[in-house]
Amino acid sequence: MDFHEIVETRRRIRRYQPDQVSDEIIQKLIDAARHAPSADNIQPWEFAIVRDRQVREKFSS
């Protein structure tokens, strides 16, 4: 899948399945995010993995 196909076929997700995301997938996502470019290569990354539903709801309000 090339970049233009990804952009053209993107969609909004308004509801998510309640399934837990595996540690392996989370690690892959963090690794991908760490490799993203940053201004002046300052890499100001901070990640928080929140699995507790009540805590996630506090973040979203």
Your description of this structure?
It is a single chain. The chain has 61 residues and is mainly alpha-helical. The protein has a domain at 18-35 and 43-61. It contains three helices and no strands. The protein has helices at 3-8, 23-34, 53-60. The longest helix is centred in the middle third of the chain and has 12 residues, at 23-34. The N and C termini lie far apart (35 Å). The mean pLDDT is 87.
Give helix and strand order, one letter per element, not per position: HHH
Helix content percent band: 40-55%
Q: Name the overall outline.
A: extended
The beta-strand count equals 0
Structural class given helices, strands, pairing? mainly alpha
Main β-sheet description: none
Radius of gyration in whole Å, from Cα?
Answer: 15 Å
In round numbers, the mean pLDDT is 87
Percent of sequence in beta strands: under 5%
Termini separation: 35 Å
Low-confidence stretches: none
Keywords:
mainly alpha, 3 helices, 43% helix
Detail the topology: elements first, then pairings.
Blueprint: H1 3-8, H2 23-34, H3 53-60
Quick summary:
This protein has helices at 3-8, 23-34, 53-60.
